[in-house]
Design a protein that fits this description.
Length: 360
């Protein structure tokens, strides 16, 4: 266990933090939500709304994927009050493609909560009280928007610190718990006065230099401190947790077309893809072999192939069927959307996959 209170460790950490900031001053990425290090030194601080929005979008997705969504959201809704007043359907539609739709619902809820406040919360407790804001996001927003002395720890940061200090974990649940605690303690002890720049420098270092495979140690400001680099076994850190194979769930998508329109139904607010418009579907169940699922109405159903989609906890194998019917069936409720608009009507990616198979 690294003794972060020992004077020699403190001296090393403070010089490592300074070297990282010097590197960041020269190599900071330009991002649409970021205020660069020079501007920050001149007293310009980022709009916390933009920092918060970017952090929510960046959970589980990459910067290049999130950036156009960020631009779109901030053009449509430049502040929390305007986002709070938006229609939920509009927010969900613009979010479609970013995945994890519960996050979009929480985003909208959070904007409403922010609109009730006099100012954006600038303490970790205040940030944690917002809907959809967990410890990582609170730390990221707190550091980046307000220079609170805290470091957000995500997978990238974990990897960098794990290599820097050769804290590897043994792959077991308890080993990881202990190591994560130690990693958090180390990164926390590294945080300098410019905590917002430090947090962003760690993000840049983790995503661009200390990459999971083939880290670019030759360009790394921490090469002289890094124990894994010294040992020459950077890729052994962090130890890989054993992953269980994802269970497979099966189901059927029923694309009903009538008079040039396609029937979509809104999913219940709670649960997976809550509140989203989707094609009709059977339940998704874990099943060995085939499944015998009835069709929702009598029609000439054509099999169109299988849409596959990876969710966090399972992989969906969704058999897609389409039926063209003359009259809209009274037995089925939902929204009828024109065929040329349906793909872009706010349907999440999994629904788009089924629609494309059926209609294109
Ligand atoms: S020296 Fe290499 S392994 Fe160590 S932190 Fe830098 S990039 Fe990562």
């Amino acid at each position: 266990m690294v003794n972060v209170k020992s004077p020699s460790v403190k001296t090393q950490f403070s010089s490592a933090a300074q070297d990282l900031l010097d590197w960041y001053d020269k190599h900071a990425r330009q991002l649409p939500w970021r205020i660069g290090p020079q501007a920050r030194k001149n007293g310009v601080m980022p709009d916390p709304y933009r920092v918060w929005l970017s952090e929510i979008m960046l959970q589980q997705t990459t910067v290049p994927h999130a950036a156009p969504y960020f631009e779109k959201f901030t053009t449509l809704w430049p502040n929390a009050n305007e986002l709070a007043e938006a229609e939920n359907d509009d927010v969900m539609r613009e979010w479609a493609g970013l995945g994890y739709y519960a996050r979009a619902r929480n985003l909208h809820k959070c904007a409403k909560a922010l609109a009730e406040l006099e100012r954006f919360p600038d303490t970790i407790e205040g940030l944690l009280a917002l809907p959809g804001v967990g410890p990582y996001t609170a730390a990221a927003v707190g550091a980046i928007a307000f220079d609170l002395p805290i470091a957000p720890v995500d997978g990238n940061v974990e990897r960098v610190i794990s290599r820097l200090m050769t804290i590897g974990g043994d792959g077991s649940a308890t080993g990881w718990a202990a190591d994560k605690k130690e990693i958090t303690q180390c990164v926390q002890a590294l945080v300098p006065k410019r905590s917002g720049d430090f947090a962003q420098a760690m993000m840049d270092l983790g995503s661009g230099v200390c990459t999971p495979k083939s880290p670019n140690c030759g360009q790394c400001p921490w090469a002289k401190y890094c124990l894994a680099h010294r040992e020459g076994n950077m890729e052994s850190y962090p130890a890989k947790a054993k992953r269980k194979p994802q269970p497979i769930r099966k189901g059927r998508a029923f694309i009903v077309v009538s008079e040039g329109k396609v029937l979509l139904q809104r999913r219940p607010d709670k649960g997976l893809l809550g509140g989203m418009l989707m094609p009709l579907s059977s339940e998704w169940i874990e099943a060995e072999g085939g499944t015998d699922i009835p069709f929702p109405l009598e029609a000439e159903w054509q099999a169109k192939g299988q849409a596959r989609h990876v969710f966090t906890h399972f992989v969906l194998h969704w058999d897609v069927f389409v039926a063209h019917v003359d009259a809209r069936p009274n037995s089925l409720e939902g929204d009828w959307i024109a065929m040329d608009k349906v793909i872009d009507s706010g349907v999440p990616t999994v629904g788009k996959k089924a629609l494309k198979l059926a209609l294109l």
